[in-house]
Write a structure and sequence with these properties.
The chain has 483 residues and is α+β, with helices and mostly antiparallel strands. 30% of the residues lie in helices and 32% in strands. The strands form six sheets. Strands 1, 4, 5, 22, 23 and 24 form a six-stranded antiparallel sheet that branches. Strands 6-7-8-9 form a four-stranded antiparallel sheet. Helix 3 packs antiparallel against helix 4 and helix 3 (87-139) runs antiparallel to helix 5 (162-195). The longest helix has 53 residues, at 87-139. Residues 224-476 form the Olfactomedin-like domain.
């Protein structure tokens, strides 16, 4: 979970991510919609899910109510030779999988809370220190002149709203501990049921799982957008391919799609490798090949909602290729955009058009001649590829090593080589910019692709034939239910 206001959010530890991938189960919130379901409606769906046909399980022949309003049902158990096909076993496996997913998500939240706690404590101590200085100044007004006294007082007034926010964080941290304990208890119950099938109320179990999912979803919803303040040490996932390339997972939120795609090279390539899971990608196994109808240019590709968006070779045309149907759904020219190394990043590689996605949708980063080679940002409509809005950042693209979007903000690195740092940020929500100084370790000294994935909350990079991840730290404001 994230820390309110001055909370550092989205810091996923290396250990947590690698453990999840090695178990082939990335944390997922699919289906955690928090909807309150009536008991009657739930019962109907449970019956439908558990007993799909008379041959596979228990048969409910009739139902009625007695004079006191109690439910009366006539039920016939399945034949003995059908017990091994009882759908309750399948339902139990599904419940166990949900518990595993919830547990992994809770571990991530718990780790974030632990790492951010010290920062919050430091903030609280700082506020108390400033408040103490103000009291001292109030008792001895001669120690400060009127102007500096008023400035100090204004700063303290701005800090005072942090107190209830810090209290909310402490409550959130306690809630995480309680949720983790409940999940552990539920796991024990499910294991006991696995030994003695039919000895527990399946409806009650399902309701408890749904309740936990709802509460977890409410907690995860607080992990909103924020301002980038730090990048972790690199996590090398694999070493494969040539010096240039790109790799990615689906950036759509939410998504249960755990596939990984790899595209080696920066021009005239058509072969896309699709791996079933991150673990398969790490081992280089269980993959299928897509042969694109048209070759690509650069490494600025992105997968969004099951489709690959890429720049067609020797053109400023963007193509939307659907993986399931293996077909082009739409293609459109990005008007005025340079291509074929007219306005690339500092490393070249036909990187004129960079497509990316964040919490706000699909984006294109490029340049035009009227913009004098400065970076242009356009938000795209994913279905039609129509440009919805455009911003001129004023930053020369040839001076940028790479760029990526987080929460509607474009972050630009000053180089693709060793010693690079995140040097520039452009905020589309206010059409303003600032120069930043956020270092990161360029371990293999030549980055040819760097994209943020809002679902994973990490940076994907292709670094000199190595596929590398970076965790990010976001400064974010958390709204409580009372706001």
């Amino acid at each position: 979970m994230s820390v309110p206001l001055l909370k550092i959010g989205a810091v996923l530890s290396t250990m947590a991510m690698v453990t999840n991938w090695m178990s082939q189960t990335l944390p997922s919130l699919v289906g955690l919609n928090g909807t309150t379901i009536s008991r009657a409606g739930t019962s109907e769906r449970i019956v439908s899910a558990l007993y799909p046909s008379p041959e596979e399980g228990w048969q409910i022949y009739s139902s009625a109510q007695d004079a006191d309003g109690k439910c009366i049902c006539t039920v016939v158990a399945p034949a003995q030779n059908m017990c091994n096909r009882d759908p309750r076993s399948r339902q139990l496996r599904q419940l166990m999988e949900k518990v595993q997913n919830i547990t992994q998500s809770m571990e991530v939240l718990d780790l974030r809370t632990y790492r951010d706690l010290q920062y919050v404590r430091d903030t609280e101590n700082l506020m108390k220190t400033v408040d103490g200085k103000l009291k001292t100044a109030s008792e001895n007004a001669r120690s400060l002149n009127p102007k500096s006294f008023q400035e100090l007082k204004d700063k303290v007034t701005q800090l005072l709203p942090l107190l209830p926010v810090l209290e909310q964080y402490k409550a959130d941290a306690r809630m995480i501990l309680r949720l983790r304990e409940e999940v552990r208890n539920l796991s024990l119950v499910l294991m006991a049921i696995q030994e003695e099938m039919g000895a527990y109320d399946y409806e009650e179990l399902r309701q408890r799982v749904l309740l936990l999912e709802t509460r977890l979803h409410s907690c995860m919803q607080k992990l909103g957008c924020g301002k980038l303040t730090g990048v972790s040490n690199p996590i090398t996932v694999r070493a494969s391919g040539s010096r240039f390339g790109s790799w990615m997972t689906d950036t759509m939120i939410p998504s249960s799609d755990n596939r990984v795609w790899s595209m080696d090279g920066y021009f005239k390539g058509r072969r896309v490798l699709e791996y079933r899971t991150m673990n398969d990608f790490m081992k280089g196994q269980n993959f299928v090949q897509h042969l694109l109808p048209h070759p690509w240019a650069g490494t600025g590709h992105v997968v969004y909602n099951g489709s690959l968006y890429y720049n067609k070779y020797q053109s400023n045309i963007i193509i939307k290729y659907h993986f399931r149907s293996r077909s082009i759904l739409v293609q459109r020219s990005l008007s005025g955009a340079g291509y074929n190394n007219t306005f690339p990043y500092s490393w070249g590689g036909s990187s004129d058009i960079d497509l990316m996605a964040d919490e706000n949708g699909l984006w294109a980063v490029y340049t035009t001649i009227p913009n004098a080679g400065n970076i242009v940002i356009s938000r795209l409509e994913p279905q039609s590829l129509e440009v919805l809005q455009t911003w001129d950042t004023g930053f020369p693209k040839r001076s940028a090593g790479e760029s990526f979007m987080i929460c509607g903000t474009l972050y630009v690195t000053n180089s693709h080589l060793a010693g690079a740092k995140i040097y520039f940020a452009y905020y589309t929500n206010t059409s303003t910019y600032e120069y930043t100084d956020i270092p990161f370790h360029n371990q293999y000294s030549h980055i040819s692709m760097m994209d943020y994935n809002p679902r994973e909350r990490v940076l994907f990079t292709w670094n000199n034939g190595h596929q590398v991840l970076y965790n990010v730290t976001l400064f974010q404001v958390i709204k409580t239910s009372e706001d």
